[in-house]
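Entry 14. Two folds queued back to back today. First construct below, sequence then structure tokens.
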Amino acid sequence: MILYADSGSTKTDWALKTEEGKVIYWKSGGWNPYFLTSEQMIQEGKILINKINFETQNYLKNISEIQFYGAGCSTEKNRQIVSIALKNLFPKTEKMTVSHDLLGAARSVYDDKKYQKGVVLILGTGSNACLYNGKKVTQELTNLGFWLGDEGSGGFLGKKLVTDFLYNRLSNEIHYLFHQKYKLDREIVLKRAYQETKPNEFFASFVPFLYKYKDEYSIKKLIENSFDEFLDRIEEEFKDLNLNFYAVGSVAYFFEEILKEKINKRKGNLIRIVKSPIEGLVNR
């Protein structure tokens, strides 16, 4: 039996594939080693397992392989944080792979028989990108994480929206609607941003508001500018954007039209978008 995991900063999608070919799916919080320690992952994992039905719990006792693809798992130190947690929770596992979520995203969205090499984008709570040749990641975008990077991501979009709200840059109508829905002020925002855990999730939680009003001029410009910043970063490092693009993540999925327009203007071609990569990983 194989346990698959695709972990972003906000959530982790899990899938257990039994020897009979049955697939069981469930979700948990994000397991980003930049935000959680091994001990915190173990604690969350034990709570999660206790909530799962008895049949699935029995399956989990006999896992032979784990494939974990996660945000933040780009360094050996961070991969070890996740590995320690998984080994504690599933001590009988014989084979374990902990890899960057970029590789998981590429494998989930890419069909070797149909597609050419190109750029794989992750646009969810966080953002990232890589060049993929159908077998391996050949170049990764420099990633500075939530506070210094993550251009185009849900966290980045939410941060821009909240900043514009607090600076009174939004139109009167959008400012009023945002205030009525969230009742935020400067003190609340600063506390959530600097004193509480997972600020990226807090800011990404405003993406549904952006989606609802995505056709309003100031909101559309905010989204367009954020995607331009992301693509500018990619162009700086990958040089030639006259390539095929494959995108994974809820932000890419919900703002597909804007993303596609921005890529086309740079002579790229957006081939496919997948909201969540877990099913693609299971069915490879």
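Second construct, same run, same settings:
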Amino acid sequence: MSTNIQNLLTPALVVFPEIVDHNIDVTLVRLNGNPERWRPHVKTAKLISTMRQMTAHGIRNFKCATTLELLTVCEAGASDVLVAFACWGPRARRVAEIALEFPKVAISALVEDARNLTEWKATRIGIFIDVNPGGNRTGIEQDRIDDIVELAREIQRAGLEFRGLHYYDGHHRQADLAERTSAAWAGYDRLMEIVAALVSAGRAPAEVITSGTPALPCSISYPGFLNASFVHRVSPGTVVYNDTSSLEQLPDWGYQPAVFVLATVISHPIDGIVTCDAGHKSVSADAGIPNCAVRGRPDLEPLGPSEEHLPIRVPAGSTAPEPGDLLYLLPRHVCPTVNNFNDAVLVTDVGLTIVPVTARGREAPLPAEPATP
């Protein structure tokens, strides 16, 4: 353990666990104190220590995308995990293996195509139908109600458990919350029509999952989800750490940033520009430029990064940071930023602790099956 931030090699991923606890509490307050209403996606958390903070708050239901995330969250104490990703071939087999390794954890997968059901026969994997709410990433289009009902029938004919519907409406990111809510509620009205059709067909869903971070306020305020015949859960993951995007989307919720990239100013190449050592291999630029903000220095403007360098504009009249100075960079998109680091620094009152970013990347590819002699 080190007690001095100055001793860290930069760029470094720094995590404040007390703020993580605060953000979890803020979310649970919005969910009326009921952790059963939250199925957070652990693509953000990545650290098993963060996942254990979540389970310590009574959160037992999770989402994930990779088999390494699945393995990690099961080890962290999850009771129920949805692999929110269409799994075929070796990925499906690995999910089934992990389910056997953790028999007390209810593990489910997404399906949008009846042909995918063959991957899950003779396994203990539950099935959620993936409904496309208009983001056009995955899922059955929400207007194809008859096809959704038929797929539910196919799931049960295959001897599998139909657990419910997955409806990720993360494409609703309108800056105006009223506009965002109107768009989201129109989709939820359609989703309730799907539920009604399934109930009429004797295939009532036990659970309906909606909303990442942007649509969270829209989802928890939708009247149709209150006192519904199914369990409704929301699935934001970003809010455990937060970033500039989530803080803009939920400005009045009381969330605080819990993760920063610590960077060192390495150059002052020209007047009005300084450069630090945190390029896009450290702070993800997938959400656009600027890819971050500098804590405590709203006057500084991060520019387009290269792999290892981040130039920052210093406006006229502002004091430029000196080479050797440390900057705390708040990512625009924290999830892939966390995934950029092998290790994280936990900052607490007692000092600094270095821990692995447990679910970073993916498991090694499964070995090829031996050739038949």
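Quick look at the second one. Residues 259-356 form a domain with the Lyase, Ornithine Decarboxylase; Chain A, domain 1 fold (CATH 2.40.37.20). The longest strand covers residues 259-270.
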